[in-house]
Amino acid sequence: MDITYCLNCHNRLWQLQQTIEHNLQFTKVNEVEICILAYNDETVEPYLVENFSEYINDGRLVVKSQTDDKPYTFGYVKNLSHSIGSGRVLFNLDADNYIDGVEQSLYNLKDDEILVTELSYLKDGRGGRIGISRNTFNRLGGYQDNQERPDDDDFVYRAMKAGIRLKRASCKIPPIPNNFK
């Protein structure tokens, strides 16, 4: 597998229902997959199995439910979602985000590079779109729940401190707002 889009979903099925069809258009059998971790959420997996079994059956969509007593922290659940994918490159994508303009950059991403969306300063949810090779992700120890910096900022900081070169990609489609209907 070349690319894995890694999502975690916790009480956000309503957003995933709006983005999943668009995002599945970017999958390719044996090349690009979307992996979704349904964390302490019993609604996501049944919805995806009922509506997208073709993608699950051919490996373009991987769904795992996990229920545990650990508190939801961003670093913890992102590491879980990244662990279920098989891609050479991992790309963090939340349930409210659309895949947009990063595909070629991900195919070309090298082990010494990290891809970050250029519009992260907008603070609307695009800032956590981060692509990195599995080798480098593992070498960095994945995401950490750092008290000094948000998980995405900390991850990019640690990558750059380790000598990983920063690359930028455009992300023009805004995410779905984080407020309920």
Description:
- It is a single chain.
- This protein has 181 residues and is α/β, with parallel strands linked by helices.
- It contains seven helices and seven strands, in the order E-H-E-H-H-E-H-E-H-E-E-H-H-E.
- It has a seven-stranded mixed β-sheet with strand order 3-2-1-4-6-5-7, sandwiched between helices.
- The longest helix has 12 residues, at 13-24.
- The relative contact order is 0.18.
Strand content: 15-25%
**Count of helix runs:** 7
- Fraction of residues in helices? 25-40%
Total number of strands = 7
Structural class: alpha/beta
Could you describe the largest sheet, including whether it forms a barrel? 7 strands, mixed
Mean pLDDT: 91
Oligomer: single chain
Give the SSE layout.
Layout: E1 3-9, H1 13-24, E2 32-39, H2 44-51, H3 53-57, E3 61-66, H4 74-83, E4 89-92, H5 103-108, E5 113-117, E6 130-133, H6 134-140, H7 151-161, E7 165-169
Parallel strand pairs: 1-2, 1-4, 2-3, 5-7
Antiparallel strand pairs: 4-6, 5-6
Describe the structure using short key phrases:
181 residues, alpha/beta, 7-stranded mixed beta sheet, 33% helix
Short note summarizing the structure:
The chain has 181 residues and is an alpha/beta fold. It contains seven helices and seven strands, in the order βαβααβαβαββααβ. Strands 3-2-1-4-6-5-7 form a seven-stranded mixed beta sheet, sandwiched between helices.
